[in-house]
TrEMBL record:
One annotated GO molecular function: transferase activity
Lineage: Bacteria, Pseudomonadati, Pseudomonadota, Gammaproteobacteria, Pseudomonadales
Protein name per Swiss-Prot or TrEMBL: Glycosyl transferase
Organism, as annotated: Pseudomonas fluorescens
UniProt KW keywords: Transferase
Cited SUPFAM superfamilies: UDP-Glycosyltransferase/glycogen phosphorylase
Gene3D superfamilies per record: Glycogen Phosphorylase B
Length: 368
């Protein structure tokens, strides 16, 4: 069965859960995929105009012969009541492409982000099997009218599709009461962009406490500053775009490094001694299973994290230190830095946390 995939990220971005899902689906079925790039589903904010283009430059991702790419035009008006009347005429070409794709064979729909376009396509293809891969608490990313609009469309989507995948235990618990069928498919690690286990440097390093990723409103600057002050001899290296600036002057041992291309960021991550996941505890992070956890551990790095989302369930996991208010950050860092890594354990972690295995364990391909 062919696949129509409505993605939350563009195809021309670094490989994420959506990319791995469609690759897995094609490998299992041999069928083509129609990938539909996302469009704005919230109203613009002032930060959108202040935000600089990423210094890492655009990603150039080849389109495989079995994948067809569709980029629907849209205006950033979806949350406004009645916006569908304006948007539907813009999507005529998209509707035609989907109809032509489905005319060539039976098709399944996977929605990976709620949207008006997703609801429109589900209404036009009522007999097609459908699944919603809820990989985030999407309404929590938005504010005001945009948040209410996204919450309403997500509720409509969950009522419409018979099958829900979720990326965290919190999302499973939240949707179980209203969804027809819910399956947990945690995130995993992208082995393609990791150095082979045999090439990893597991010897003494510079004792760097490091973080790679966006520093947005969920990033706990206060914790990072406290960690740096408690460990003044250790560099605290933060790599990525800063969308929410620190609350004041930073300790001298905190290094801010601009965003890098994904492969370069992974290479920089391998030079850390400890990986940090310093996220605030709020509605947004409560449903997150961070990819960073898998990347850090697949490189043999111990992890210091706050007790959010899926990380809250990993207090007993090897190589993980969870911090709370009042935690001794010096002792925590010393324990993490002293945590040994060996190639056998790293190899087993990689084997146990592969994307293909996550999806294969679900009933996505089961007969309906």
């Amino acid at each position: 069965m062919r696949l129509i995939y409505l993605s939350p990220v563009p195809w021309a971005s670094f490989s994420q859960r959506p990319h791995h899902f469609v690759h897995w689906y094609h490998e299992q079925t041999g069928e083509p995929v129609l990938w539909i790039d996302p469009y704005p589903t919230r109203l613009p904010s002032l930060n959108d105009f202040r935000r600089k283009p990423p210094s890492a430059g655009p990603q150039h991702i080849a389109v495989p012969p079995w994948l067809r790419l569709c980029q629907p035009p849209a205006l950033p008006i979806e949350p406004i009541p009645g916006a569908a009347l304006v948007l539907k005429p813009l999507w005529r070409k998209t509707f035609r492409r989907v109809a032509q794709f489905c005319a060539e064979g039976p098709s399944m729909i996977c929605v990976a982000k709620p949207s008006e376009l997703a609801l429109q396509l589900l209404a036009r293809l009522p007999d097609s099997p459908a699944v919603y891969d809820a990989m985030d608490d999407f309404p929590a990313f938005y504010q005001g009218l945009s948040r209410r609009s996204m919450a309403r469309r997500q509720a409509q989507l969950i009522r419409r599709v018979p099958h829900l995948l979720v990326s965290s235990t919190a999302l499973r618990d939240r949707h179980q009461a209203v969804a027809k069928r819910v399956e947990l498919a945690l995130n995993a690690c992208d082995l393609q962009h990791l150095a082979p286990v045999e090439q990893l440097d597991l010897g003494p390093k510079q004792q760097v406490l490091g973080y790679v990723g966006t520093m947005g409103h969920w990033f706990d600057w206060d914790l990072v500053i406290a960690l740096a002050r408690a460990n003044p001899a250790n560099p605290v290296r933060l790599i990525g775009p800063v969308f929410t600036p620190p609350p004041g002057a930073l300790p001298a041992n905190i290094e801010l490094i601009p965003e890098r291309a994904h492969a370069e960021a992974i290479a920089a991550m391998a030079t850390f001694s400890v990986g940090l996941i310093p996220f605030k505890l709020n509605q947004l992070t409560a449903s997150v299973d961070p990819i960073k956890y898998y990347e850090y551990r697949a490189l043999g790095l111990p992890v210091i994290s706050t007790r959010f989302g899926e990380m809250a369930l990993r207090g007993e996991a090897p190589g993980v230190w969870l911090v709370d208010e009042g935690t001794d950050l010096r002792q925590t860092a010393l324990q993490a830095l002293a945590c040994p890594s060996d190639r056998t354990t790293i190899g087993q972690f990689r084997q146990d946390n592969r994307w293909a295995d996550r999806f294969a364990a679900t009933q996505v391909l089961a007969p309906t």
